[in-house]
Give the backbone structure.
Amino acid sequence: MYREWRPRPRLTPIIDCFWLHIATEPTRILPDARTDLIFDGEQLTLAGPDTGAWLTSATPGTRFLGVRFQPGIGPTLLGIPGHQLRNERPAATELWTPAKYLTDELAEARSLAQGCQLLESAVLRLLAEAPEVDPGIALIARTAAPVSTMADRLGITERTLHRRCTQAFGYGYRTLHRILRFRRALQLAESGRPLAEVAAGTGYADQAHFSRDTRTFSGLSTQALIHSRTPANPQS
């Protein structure tokens, strides 16, 4: 079982969603350029930005409560370079000092609503304590432009753009937009649209190009990936 809750409007530039997952079977987590803070009932874990599918297995019935940050925001607020979290699942206490206190609070939460409130309060504290979030992060994430164009728009060199991206997103500008394009295309493909139409509409050269990215980021063919995704395993 999997559910998502959107944050209050003032937090939407920071938080993508709060979510709950109760394990029933192995899950295939796909790259989405986001960082999650996840509590499993005992430990608080940071799920960094991935470059490939992450296969998870947990005891059936294990409950995971998480907050998913918008692209580039998690590493920025937590003060942890994105590339340090790339393809990693470290215990939050190893990298983030307040994690021990938040873990204890979440362990004592009496309801799902209280757990979400605790996560939201932690994010609000981060916002109050962290330097102002660079508006360029959101611009980089939402704008699929040539590297030179984006660098010019931000008034920086291409090398500086790459460094800023790896710091905030965990990987460079081209990889970031390759992953975001794949997720947009997958969402359209799941709606039942023809794959050739999906590929053309999301900037792929052709359907084969989309299929190659699907294999790279999920380890499955496009049809197998779509078939495997269910309400219980929304990212499987």
